[in-house]
Design brief:
9 helices; 2 domains; six-stranded parallel β-sheet; seven-stranded mixed β-sheet; Rossmann fold; single chain; alpha/beta; 324 residues; binds NADP nicotinamide-adenine-dinucleotide phosphate; Quinone Oxidoreductase, Chain A, domain 1; globular
Length: 324
């Protein structure tokens, strides 16, 4: 019998409980897949706590996974049973051993990329790509700040930014995380739980500040990140792992003619051509060695609560997946 994590109420990690579920046959344009690896994202914590009210309860959380095509609905072309596929989808339903999903969200996993890696990359890798190209086209001459540089997105973002020629200053919550961030291309890593990251960024940039600050930590760092900007600097807030940001007075941006963006991956990959182009670029950067990525930490699907606990306790580095 297929199993899934069914969210019946908002709350702490303990509300993530596994249940037997029935899976409908795939309708027109849909595919049924047996999932072998499910990506865990901070987004899932926001959904579990109710910070994001985007999943109707009871419902199965989870936005990304990898697995094998079992059967096809009418009209699906270009896929066959047995194909290895991965996806991210705003339709939720990822935390499951099997599911039905629109074929238009699936990409084939290239040979040489494991299911585990693919499941951990669809959101985090495409987010890194979104951040270093369409959100802000990085190149030599850019000096950037990346918070949570040893996190799932962070390690990929640092590597990609460095590859494009940017000078990368990271922040991390421990010395062990700092070592990983350095290996991923950070020139300097600030231990922001004990050091004043604004003062250190000013020091490291000769008082000038950074061109781009990538901030996914939110509440605890957002206003400090703005203080780290050089004139005409770009503040990119793409998450809030420490909590939601207090409302901001727009006039603050005038201090250095700053720009502020709050990108969401869904909008950058909303169409099939955009998804295909970005996924192809992501997999190409893995094939050519631009990104070197460790296999993610894997926990059983039934231990989704433990994955969330570790993520929120800042115990993880890189990506985490669940294995059904
Ligand atoms: N906008 C988008 O489209 C998009 C897409 C994907 C991800 N995201 C965002 O990107 C961020 C990273 O996602 P991820 O899944 O890769 O997670 P992650 O970075 O692996 O984990 C979050 C990290 O944030 C840091 N952190 C700082 N303060 C924290 C706090 N109070 N509680 C918990 N963590 C804290 C921790 O690193 P340290 O211990 O080093 O501080 C922690 O490891 C999240 O904010 C997520 O929402 C956004």
């Amino acid at each position: 019998m297929p199993q899934a994590i069914m969210l019946r109420e908002h709350g702490g990690p303990e509300v993530l409980r596994v249940e037997d579920v029935n899976i409908a046959a795939p309708g027109p344009g849909q595919v049924r897949i047996r999932q072998t690896a499910v990506g865990v994202n901070f987004h899932d914590c926001y959904v579990r706590t109710g910070l994001y009210q985007t999943l109707k309860l009871p419902g199965i959380p989870g936005l990304e996974a990898a697995g094998e095509v079992i059967s096809l609905g009418d009209g699906v072309q270009g896929l066959a049973p047995g194909d290895r596929v991965a996806y991210f989808s705003a339709a939720y339903g990822g935390y499951a051993s099997e599911r039905v999903i629109g074929a238009d969200r699936l990409v084939k996993i290239p040979a040489g990329v494991s299911d585990a890696l693919a499941a951990s990359l669809m959101i985090k890798g495409l987010t890194a790509l979104m951040l270093v190209k369409p959100v802000h086209a990085l190149g030599p001459g850019d000096t950037i700040l990346v918070h949570a540089a040893a996190g799932g997105v962070g390690l990929l973002l640092c590597q990609w930014a460095r590859h494009l020629g940017a000078r990368v200053i990271g922040t991390a919550g421990s010395a062990e995380k700092a070592a990983l961030a350095k290996a991923a291309g950070c020139e300097e890593v600030i231990l922001y739980r004990s050091e004043d990251f604004v003062a250190r960024v000013r020091d490291l940039t000769g008082g000038k500040g950074v061109n781009v600050a990538y901030d996914s930590v939110g509440k605890d760092t957002f206003y400090g990140s703005m203080e780290c900007l050089a004139d005409l600097g770009h503040l990119v807030n793409f998450g809030q792992s420490s909590g939601p940001i207090e409302p901001m007075a727009v006039s603050l941006l005038s201090k250095g003619s700053y720009t502020l963006t709050r990108p969401m991956l869904f909008h950058y990959c909303a169409t099939r051509p955009a998804l295909e182009a970005m996924a192809a670029e992501l997999f190409a950067t893995i094939a050519d060695g631009t990104l070197t990525i460790a296999e993610p930490l894997a926990l059983p699907l039934a231990e989704a609560h433990e994955a969330h606990r570790r993520l929120e306790a800042r115990e993880t580095t890189g990506a985490v997946i669940l294995t059904p």
